[in-house]
Amino acid sequence: MNVFANFLMALVSVFDTLLTLYFWIVIISALLTWVQPDPYNPIVRVLRNLTEPVLHRVRTWLPFVNIGGIDLSPIVVLVGIQFIKIFVVQSLYQAVAGMG
User: What is the pTM of this model?
Assistant: First the structure.
């Protein structure tokens, strides 16, 4: 592989890692809604700031994700992340591997 292909492989790997990290952030944020943590806790605020813009967008686009008071938007986001990891990231890995 040439240097450019290695650089692209590193970028794809970082993107994959960031998606995995965000996956876990969404899970932790969803679990926190069950225990009603202190909203002024800095960790809770960071988690909310990282997840709420995406979850709000999902709730806006798909109004049916709130069924009987149960918010399913985190599940939609998690499925979306998995789709991106399986389809987009794997396709990028294969494209970069083909460059070498």
Answer: 0.89
